[in-house]
Write the structure tokens for this entry.
Amino acid sequence: MQRKIPIHGALRAGAIVLAALAWIAASRASAADPNALWHVVHDLCVTDIKVSGSPAPCSKVDLAHGYAVLKDIRGDTQLLLIPTDRVTGIEDPQLLAAGSPNYWQDAWDALPLFAQRTGKPTGREDVGLAINSFYGRTQNQLHIHIDCVRPGVQRILAANQARIGTRWSDFDVPLTGHHYRVRRLEGADFGARDPFKLLADADPAARADMGKQTLVAIGETFADGRPGFILLVDHASLAPLDKAAGEELLDHSCAILGPHP
């Protein structure tokens, strides 16, 4: 005998499916061309550096290390770190392969270019790096956002430093309305420590579906004076509605540094 599904249950299931489809569609529709960044870097910046020695329209092209730095169209200061190889995003398995480039270190190395844009002294605590999840992005070429940290986010993290250890743990204070997991990473640079791998190695569920993850690294000076980073991770979910766009922790108006010159 065929089992009947209650009408209200079927309607609820259908609504969830429709919500999921609408969510994904909305996440993707805001970009007319999801390959625009790839075309800019591959067709223009890389070609120009090879032909003329100029990285234009990028700010920098490093062919030896396989990345470019491009000024984003939003804000006066925001930069994007973009591989010159085809890497779709946080879900790309190349990122977890042995010997893969550490794009986070490359992004941190772009801070002198960022400081040129701010026109002001910029402390490590003022800067954040972020990559959005598959659902929170509009471009299908990996790009790490480089910009100022939201002042409120900076204050919350500074006030809760002592509660952030060297292993991933839940952070019970919401940041821009979402709950993140956090850990500290000590040292002035990332070096060989790659946040993609630090997350995947510690969390099998995240490794199994990296496309749902968003990662953020915010510069920090800890209470003992040692430099480091606070890493934050969130994952996309329908309940509550969360596209996992860690870029939300950054401020493209760079208010933390005051008025732009």
Observations:
- Strands lie at 60-62, 67-71, 79-83, 127-131, 144-149, 169-170, 181-186, 213-221, 227-235, 250-251.
- Confidence is low (pLDDT under 50) at residues 1-30.
